[in-house]
Amino acid sequence: MSQSMGVVFPLTVFYDGSCPVCAREIAHYRTLSRSDRLHFVDISAASFDAGVLGLDQSALMKAMHAQDAAGRLYLGVEAFRALWSGLPGLRYRGLSQLLGLPGLHLLAVLGYRVFARVRHWF
Fold first, then answer.
1. What is the pTM of this model?
2. Burial of 101 (0-12, 13-18, 19+ CB in 10 A)
3. Which of 2, 34, 36, 55 lies deepest, with the highest CB count within 10 Å?
C-alpha cells in the first residue's frame, strides 16, 4: 500500500453506473488507471449490497463515495480529490491539490451539491 495526500491505496470508488454522466466519467478514469491503486464499484448493480460493507445505499446514491485501505470514507468533492490523487501524471493530482485550496474547495463543494441533485437529467 502506498500513500498520497493522506489517502492509503488501494482506493475503492463507489459510483452510480445508472447515471450516464457518472458511468462515462468512471470509464475515462479506468482507462487512465493502469494499476491496482483504484478499484471501481458500481452501486447500481443488482449484485451490490451496501449493507455488507457497512454503508448506506441511499447515501451512496446521493454523492460519490470512496474508501481507502485504512477505512477512511471520502464523500463528494473529497472522493474526487482522493480518486484524482491516485491517477498517474500531474494533471489530476494537480487538480486534486488545487481543489484543496479554501476558496476553490468551497466553490467545488457547492457546485458538486447542485450537480449531484440534477445529474440524472443530463
1. 0.88
2. exposed
3. 55
Residue 35 dihedral angles phi and psi, to the nearest 5°: -135, -175
Given this model, what pLDDT does residue 117 score? 85
pLDDT over 80 at 43, yes or no: yes
Residue 35 cell numbers, joined: 494499476
What is the residue-wise DSSP string for 58-76?
A: HHHHHS-EEEETT--EEET
Say if residue 88 is preceded by a cis peptide, omega within 30 of 0: no
Place of cell 451539491: 113
Give mean pLDDT, residues 48-68. 93
